[in-house]
Known about the structure:
Blueprint: E1 2-3, E2 6-7, E3 9-14, E4 21-27, H1 32-44, E5 53-56, H2 60-63, H3 65-74, E6 77-80
Parallel strand pairs: 5-6
Antiparallel strand pairs: 1-2, 3-4
Amino acid sequence: MRTGEGWLYLATVIDLHTRMIVGWSMAQTMQTQLVIDAMEMARARGFIRQKTVFNSDRGSQYTSTAFQDWCKAAGVRQSMGKTG
Length: 84
């Protein structure tokens, strides 16, 4: 998104049941840490627990080793759509 100070990337975590944004993060670059920060916010607010299923596309942030490690440590199961 464009701001008065340049471009920012926004990562959100949406609860599929309520459709509410339960975690978010903004940064100047689209890197894995942006997604992890949004997930951490959702977890801190009680929306991510053991066996939570997280649906995403196959973007590099979600397929990275760092994000996969975070999900494993948090007990989150990743679910990704098919390529294409």
